[in-house]
Amino acid sequence: MSNTRVVEITAQDLFSVKAAIQGGADRVELCTALGVAGLTPSIGLIEGAVKLASENGLKGFVDVLIRPREGDFVYDKDEVETAICDIRRAVAAGVDGVVVGALHNDGSIDHVTMSRMKEAAGETPVVFHRAFDVLTDQFSALEELIEMGVVRILTSGAAPVTREGIRRLQELVKRANGRVEIMAGGGVRITDIPRLFDIGVDAVHLSARRTITGGPNRPGEKASYFQADVGVVRAAVEATR
After folding, report:
1. Closest to 114 (Cα-Cα) out of 80, 69, 139, 142
2. Which tens digit of pLDDT belongs to each residue from 210-227?
3. Could you list the residue range(s) of the whole structural domain that residue 127 is in?
4. Is residue 28 part of a domain?
5. For 101-158, how does the pLDDT look when each residue is reduced to its tens digit (9 = 90+)?
6. The domain that contains 109 carries what CATH number?
7. Other C-beta atoms within 10 Å of 229: how many?
8. Rg (Cα) of the chain, in Å, rounded?
């Protein structure tokens, strides 16, 4: 079983980055558009988060999601070029990790695109996101990603939410055998966290979010958005103990 108990919080604004810091989280994954499972965030958010981490003396704190559009993970040439450009800019801004994933239509890893993404990241660690959960063969893919040099895999255990994928997560932890980190993510609740660490995952990934309702963004509509809640972050951190 893993000796680490890392809590990663998704953050789509600086408010959420600050909440993660105040709540004692170990890491953030920067993104935008959580309503569609996350897209590449702005360079302004990336630079702001890196600055906050530096000011607070935090190492290895800022990962960034690189996902050029919503939908599936099968990308055309222009989408790949967009992702490569975003990776280079994020690395230049000083992020600690890039979170990527690219597949073929048959549910296998797109090795050419992944190799290009890893090359663009240079020495910055590369994480494989929940595209892993729609792969045809997770166990073969696990070996491929280890060979590729990916440092961490985000997965719900091929289930809609992690609590339904416990058995697969446990199998993945066993197969990984410390060669790559397994991070559980996908609808993680505070009450799920002790069990997830008990089965040996290296980290948990959650939004710790609250819904904010503000003014209208169109006539006749109430606008709402997600932000991390410092109280939920603290509860997640406490649940690791």
Report:
1. 80
2. 898 888 888 878 888 889
3. 6-239
4. yes
5. 999 999 999 999 999 999 999 999 999 999 999 999 999 999 999 999 999 999 999 9
6. 3.20.20.380
7. 19
8. 17
